[in-house]
Design goal:
Strand order of the largest sheet: 13-12-11-14-15-16-17-18
Number of helices: 28
Largest sheet: 8 strands, mixed
Distance between the termini: 42 Å
Low-confidence stretches: none
Number of domains: 3
Shape: globular
Strand content: 5-15%
CATH superfamily of the largest domain: 2-enoyl-CoA Hydratase, Chain A, domain 1
CATH architecture of the largest domain: Alpha-Beta Complex
Mean pLDDT: 96
Radius of gyration: 28 Å
CATH class of the largest domain: Alpha Beta
Bound molecules: acetoacetyl-coenzyme A
Helix content: 40-55%
């Protein structure tokens, strides 16, 4: 066996040159892999005892892409293009054997092999779009030549991997094998020395001829993806590269792809998206809870509440085959809740994601109950009852007497003191918060609230479990509103002041929407319902919200709130009456209204969020700034191309943020703007939030 580099070795077995890549955990195309592949293919090609070259990866996956950590650094070693050229031009067949995930540069490398075989569980994708870049190693030119233009666009602009069945049906792979090595060897022997011209993807043109005939294909595609890709640069660049496959030669197309790739990779948007990729993974790490902390199995869930939250939360568990005992007060609420769950699952059937049999199977995992005692055997119990401390305490007192020893007790509270809730039990170390976001079956964020006494085992268990049920967990300390809502409250407070002092809800919303969030604070309030937490019995027209609710304008569900809503399309339009009402209210409060520029509106909405984020860090309620960014991206739709509020603050310059906070404090004579000590310190030390990650 010849060691080519520390990441690649070469071995001739039964007349086949086996190039083995080992670069755990995901066999990324680091320098050692590129150098090794280049040299290994060269040596194997020159070795007369080898009739074919088999590329195989050690561990759980084939190459999962370029080494993202190398981006932004000066290039070193062999370029991926040279590796690909060596493979494609080899005089003997090169076969890639694929397991796990062939992603990005990995799939692009596979596409430069003459043949590809894979195990059934393998996935294939070009997900670079999620990093704000495009497949920059020939992917935009090769993939459309294999699977066709429209499918290639879907794979590259959507960034979602496809499975082995799709890959086989669409020519991405040549065979599905049972055993990676044995199957790969058998295939290699079959094609070795056949003397046929070796197939090169770059020469395929069948799909391009078909696509050329469809003159509206790209217009149609652009329209289809416009809403989803708003604000991102990579999708359009990918489309242009694919258009090139129809108008340029392969080599010219590669050159144009390179130029667009370089532009994107240097952009701040891509930097933000790459930062975010690592931020999400970093959020899993808890400094004082090491990776080898023992965890306990969670094979059953008890869910208290079958309403919107309880139903949604429980869906995540049955989707993973975990049985759920779901408890309600009354049969009617139980029936209604489970009917909603079923109809939510059935939407997946309509979209072809699951079959009706699978829905039946998931529904069969529910055990409906009207009795808390039925939770006695559950490994974990989550309550999603009314958000009032007394009610939560009552539930936990009862649970303490019912739950088996060793059961995890979790509250889905969105803002309450988890320590206080835990204190009513005799086992506070088994208690923590699991704050799901609505709709809980869809939203990826899970704030895992670590109470003072929560044990490390419980924390590690719930972090692992979150990943299993498809959530992105972020640890939060106990503070009102935890990380996400605490920051949201600050933005809301300022947004309300803005409309009192001079602007209108739609102006604020437009600015926030243009910044990249899916909706502004007022549209969001309408969606959530203006009467959440509003009590008609005590309402005395003290806020604009009070007045709107008193007038029956309670948000989208009543067809009107800050906006009017079209009953069919739910499209929103500003309302003259609301404008009058706001003007009257300001006058009544004796406020002299003034103009706000778009820039000032943005600063007044976003900078309090940054300041509150800094306070959260100061108090140790978030482990690191990037965790706050993960919360805002996943829970509130902060655009990934702006990294998150803390990343964004760094791009604005912390000294600029601080100066503005002080300016507003002076102007408004309001302590709301008091800069956090953490922000002051970072600025005086010449540091950024990123330095704290
Ligand atoms: N480069 C560097 N590190 C990577 C990486 C990459 N491409 N992919 C994953 N990692 C690291 C992660 O940061 C993580 O590190 P830590 O353990 O230190 O946190 C570790 O590998 C394991 O990753 P995950 O926790 O994500 O493991 P998983 O099993 O849940 O998922 C995966 C595996 C599906 C491969 C996922 O990691 C992933 O999606 N990776 C990115 C794939 C990608 O985007 N590829 C394209 C790269 S860009 C490119 O290739 C450009 C080009 O055109 C040449």
């Amino acid at each position: 066996m010849a060691v080519i580099t520390d990441m690649v070795d070469l071995n001739i077995q039964d007349g086949i040159a086996v190039l083995k890549i080992k670069n755990p955990p995901v066999n990324a195309l680091s320098k050692g892999v590129r150098d090794g592949l280049y040299e290994g293919v060269k040596q194997a090609n020159a070795d007369d005892s080898a009739k074919a070259i088999l590329i195989i990866c050690v561990g759980r996956t084939y190459i999962a892409g370029a080494d993202i950590k190398e981006f932004g650094r000066p290039p070193q070693g062999t370029s991926l293009f040279d590796v690909h050229k060596e493979m494609e031009n080899a005089s003997k067949p090169v076969i890639s054997t694929i397991q796990g995930t062939a992603l990005g540069g990995g799939l692009e490398t596979a596409l430069c092999s003459h043949y590809r075989v894979a195990v059934t569980s393998a996935k294939f994708g070009l997900p670079e779009v999620h990093l704000g870049i495009l497949p920059g190693a020939g992917g935009t030119q090769r993939l459309p030549r294999v699977v066709g233009v429209e499918k290639a666009l879907n794979m590259m602009v959507g960034g979602k991997p496809v499975n082995a069945k799709f890959a086989l049906e669409n020519g991405l792979i040549d065979e599905i094998v049972d055993d990676l090595f044995e199957g790969g060897m058998a295939f290699a022997k079959k094609v070795a020395g056949k003397g046929e011209v070796l197939p090169k993807v770059r020469d395929y043109d069948e799909h391009l001829v078909v696509a050329k005939a469809d003159t509206e294909l790209f217009d149609r595609y652009r329209k289809k993806i416009a809403r989803k890709t708003r604000g991102f640069d990579a999708p359009e660049a990918i489309i242009q590269c694919v258009e090139d496959t129809l108008r340029l030669s392969f080599d010219e197309g590669i050159k144009a792809e390179r130029n667009r790739f370089m532009k994107l990779v240097k952009s701040q948007k891509s930097e933000a998206q790459r930062y975010y990729f690592f931020a999400e993974r970093l959020a899993n790490k808890i400094p004082d809870v090491p990776k080898d902390t023992p965890t306990i199995p969670v094979n059953s869930l008890g869910m208290i509440g079958a309403g919107t939250m309880g139903g949604g939360i429980s869906m995540n568990f049955v989707s993973q085959g975990i049985p759920v005992v779901i408890v309600e007060h009354e049969q009617e609420a139980l029936d209604r809740g489970l009917a909603v769950v079923r109809s939510n699952f059935m939407r997946g059937v309509k979209r072809g994601r699951v079959t009706e049999e699978q829905v039946d199977q998931m529904m069969s995992l529910y055990k409906p109950s009207l009795n808390l005692e039925d939770l006695a055997d559950c490994d974990m119990i989550i309550e999603a009852v009314f958000e009032l401390m007394d009610i939560k305490k009552e539930v936990f007192t009862k649970l303490d007497g019912i739950a088996k020893e060793g059961a995890i007790l979790a509250t889905n509270s969105s803002a309450l003191d988890v320590d206080e809730i835990a204190s009513v039990t005799k086992r506070p170390e088994w208690v923590l918060g699991t704050h799901f976001f609505s709709p809980a079956n869809i939203m990826r964020l899970l704030e895992v609230v670590r109470a003072e006494k929560t044990s490390k085992t419980i924390l590690a268990t719930v972090m692992g479990l979150s990943k299993k049920i498809g959530k992105v967990p972020v640890v939060s300390g106990v503070c009102p509103g935890f990380i996400g809502n605490r920051i949201l409250f600050k933005r809301g407070e300022q947004a309300n002041k803005l409309i009192l002092e001079g602007t209108m809800p739609w102006n604020v919303d437009d600015v926030v929407y243009d910044f990249g969030l899916p909706m502004g604070p007022f549209a969001m309030a309408d969606l959530a319902g203006l009467d959440v937490g509003w009590d008609p019995r005590i309402s005395k027209s003290q806020t604009i919200r009070d007045v709107l609710c008193e007038n029956g304008r309670r948000g989208q569900k009543t067809g009107k709130g800050y906006y009017n809503y079209d009953p069919e399309t739910r499209a929103k339009t500003p309302d003259e009456g609301v404008k009058e009402l706001i003007l009257e209210f300001s006058e009544k409060m004796g406020i002299t209204r003034r103009e706000f520029s778009k820039e000032e509106i943005l600063q007044r909405c976003i900078y309090p969020m940054i300041n509150e984020g800094a306070r959260i860090l100061e108090e140790g309620m978030s482990q690191r700034p990037s965790d706050i960014d993960v919360v805002w991206v996943n829970g509130y739709g902060w655009p990934t191309y702006r990294g998150g509020p803390m990343f964004y603050a760094d791009t604005v310059g912390l000294e600029n943020v601080l100066a503005k906070l002080k300016e507003f404090q002076e102007k408004d004579q309001d302590d709301f703007w008091q800069p956090s000590a953490m922000l002051e310190k970072l600025v005086s030390d010449g540091k950024n939030f990123r330095d704290l990650n």
